[in-house]
Design brief:
Blueprint (H helix, E strand, L loop, with lengths): L3 H13 L6 H10 L6 E7 L6 E5 L7 H9 L6 H8 L4 E4 H4 L8 H6 L7 E9 L3 E9 L8 H9 L1 H14 L12 H11 L7 H11 L4 H8 L3 H15 L4 H13 L10 H4 L8
Antiparallel strand pairs: 1-2, 1-5, 3-4, 4-5
Helix pairs in contact: 1-2, 10-12, 11-12
Amino acid sequence: MPTTSSYNQQLALLITRVGRSDFASQLVATLKSLVPIDDATVLVYPDTDLPVIEYFEVPAGLDRSTLDVFVAGAFVLDPYYQAASRDGRFGVFRLRDLAPRGFRDSEYYKAWYRNCGYQDECGYLLPNGANGFINIALGRTGDNSRFTRQQFKALVAVRPVIEVLCQQHWQLRPAAARPEDNVNLREQLNTALNQFGSSLLTEREAQVINLVLHGHSTKTLAEKLSISVETVKLHRKHAYAKLEVGSQAELFYLFLDSLMSAGDYAGGDTLVAYLQPPRTAP
């Protein structure tokens, strides 16, 4: 059972690791000395660039290639990313604090949570720089494993020191300069998500599809858009027919495929280029 004494010892080590390559691994070790944690991932979101995986433990059912897809673009659907980038929320959150009702039935949840055996997740969202932030994802994977209220309070209590040390470390170790540093890659992906399906769907149908991708249930969709459940179902049915998908899973992977195929994205619906027939050689 983690103790305050072991936490203090690990925290002392963490302070000495600021600016060093093993900071992230010691960060996780420090938090594990405080509460039971089965696996962890540390993601650093620069001001405008794609997230960087600073530390990860790959649980059963999730491999590195899945994480690569996540950081390449799928992260735009993540409730923690949305909370920090869209809503400016920082602190310690349970997944259920941020995700819409019905999220556990979404394809995103199945791909990134259920398949890796997560039973519960707590995550730190810590501001870093003008528009950047740090996400420390902490998971429980055992049967019926949950973070208790006391454990959650312990994570909240140490947030100030964890935040300061993380900010000091990642501001000492800035991301390498990229040739396209003037391009806001995260904003491009946010735009691609918001514009997905707009070339084929009505405005309301596109709204429904966007909220489905975020994990909203039919009921929460109806409440959010102030329309009836039956109207939601009708819009979703028409949208699926136009996009030639038959399920939420097919919709999810159509979005990911179109996003990953976008190349030099310049705005608009990623489906425009994705659905064009391949050019034939003259």
